[in-house]
Design goal:
Blueprint lengths: L14 H14 L3 H10 L6 H19 L9 E11 L2 E10 L4 E7 L6 H10 L8 E3 L13
Helix pairs in contact: 1-2, 1-3, 2-3
Length: 149
């Protein structure tokens, strides 16, 4: 009998089923109840709250292990900020993508508008993203001068 990886110690469910459920939820943007139904069709009774616990436990681990296999982002970034209504309040939504459309960072704040440095400092310091050659914006005043970036 094969031994289980340490990360699945004391789990009753087979690791392949847990990883499949987590992957379905994260990759295909399914609802937890949809994943529950898919598992039920395959003969596994798992409540949607159990699936949520699996996602919370194994999602970050999957991201960490898969990060080195992902296609690196390129050096041409597009940055934009917009307002969205959330529960009757206007909030700021900022996003940076590369020229191929890969999301670099997504920032959401309901209080005050963010400066570019506040939101994108994490993306700029992330070693998995190369330093941008160019950052394109819509020239909104919130982004400041290029020397401030």
């Amino acid at each position: 009998m094969a031994t289980r990886p340490a990360i699945f110690k004391r789990r009753q469910t087979e690791p392949v089923l847990v990883l499949s459920a987590v992957r379905w939820y994260l990759r295909y943007s399914l609802l937890l109840r949809d994943v529950e139904e898919l598992l039920d069709e395959r003969g596994l009774q798992a409540d949607h709250t159990t699936v949520w616990r699996w996602v919370q436990r194994y999602g970050p681990e999957l991201e960490q292990r898969l990060q080195r296999h992902l296609k690196p982002t390129n050096k041409s970034w597009r940055v934009d900020e917009t307002y969205v209504g959330v529960q009757g309040r206007w909030c700021y939504l900022s996003r940076a993508i590369d020229s191929a459309g890969a999301t670099l960072i997504l920032c959401f704040r309901c209080a005050t508008p963010m400066r570019l440095n506040d939101c994108f400092a994490k993306a700029l310091s992330d070693r998995s993203h190369p330093q941008p050659r160019v950052i394109n914006t819509d020239l909104a005043p919130i982004y400041g001068a290029p020397s401030q970036i």
